[in-house]
Amino acid sequence: MILRPDYMNEIKKFIDVPLVKILSGVRRSGKSTILKMIENELINNQHIDEKYIITRSYSKMQYDNMSNIEMYEDLINCFLDDHKYYLFLDELQEIEGFEKVINDLLENYNVDIYVTGSNSKLMASEISTYLSGRYVSIPIYTLSFKEYLLFKNKENENLKNMFDEYLQFGGFPLIGISNFDTDTCYQIVDGIYSTVITRDISKRHKIRNKDLFDRVVKYVIENVGKTFSANAIVKFLKNEKRNLSSETIYNYLKWLTDAFIIYPCNRYDIQGKSILKTQEKYYLSDISLKYSKLCFETSMISSMLENIVFLELKRRGYEVYIGKYYDKEIDFIGIRRNEKIYVQVCKEIPETSNREIANLMEIKNHYHKYVVTNDVLSKGNENGIEIMYIADFLLKENY
């Protein structure tokens, strides 16, 4: 088992703190493995007796159709004395009404609770109502480039070769820890995608026209990193002689977001310092999801570079937006507490154009500004704007 130290360091801060630790993210992003890492930390370093550690994986068949009452009784029957018990509850969203159980356990028993889920229902209003500030959310993403090198045990390999590999295969941990060929990798990712689409979305929301839903999802995947609206999808479908309301489109986008297949990225008015509600973009939870449906093509690289940078900023705790400054666009603004960074992403910097640099130069403030490119030779600093090869940017300790 390969450790993911960034997550472990974050979670260790909350051990024995009376908050429910919620780990959420797309299926197969490594949540269950991270739970096991925390277990090992408790046993090996915190010296907790294993009899005080209770684990449940609610995606297993033995828990099919389990009610929240049965879940509650199963857990409290494990409490044999007044000692603190550590609960590790995997895929908790499978139990209807789990919020009431967690709330009761937190209020009435000496417990430290860690849960995972592949649906943002774990962060929905029910959790907020029942736990009212007594939980901490820790989003789990697929492997960063830094983690990918660790999983491959190739931190000292040629950086460009390794990034090109990461760009082609993505960051699902199973892919990172294995040496599958390209077709096998995409087949595995397609299986993850199909599970989410079928189990977490189609069945849960009782989608009647699966073919039409699949066509909408394909449209979203094809247009990763591009601005579009629900009305644009409606118009596109009409051209294909299909009809779907914009309200239904919005529901589909929300369900895809809830299942962590996509992440929305809103526009931010830099001048007015406000979030705009129109013309948002969507990015995938892992770039390999696009390849598994459409195959890998070099024409995809520009948008996939954006996707990789977007996820890296999210991993580092930034709220990420598309920047709007008068009539100019900045690919990303990352906001974290009182700090901001501005990032332009491009496949290469054309010799005859410096649009990426020029757009950043328009913004007159002291925050860090970057142009990130896939050209390994593009490095330097121009008027305070740092130009970096994308692999160096991803491995940079602090922005």
Question: Can you give a write-up of this model?
Answer:
The chain is an alpha/beta fold and 399 residues long. It has helices at 5-12, 31-44, 68-76, 98-108, 125-131, 145-152, 159-169, 173-176, 182-203, 210-222, 230-239, 246-258, 288-294, 301-315, 355-361, 390-395; strands at residues 20-24, 53-57, 85-90, 111-117, 135-139, 262-269, 274-284, 319-325, 328-336, 339-346, 368-373, 380-382, 385-389. The protein is globular.
Key traits:
399 residues, alpha/beta, Rossmann fold, Trna Endonuclease, Chain: A, domain 1, 8-stranded mixed β-sheet, 5-stranded parallel β-sheet, 13 strands, 41% helix, globular
Total beta-strand segments:
13
**Number of DSSP helical runs:** 16
CATH architecture of the domain at 5-139: 3-Layer(aba) Sandwich
CATH C-level class of the domain at 5-139: Alpha Beta
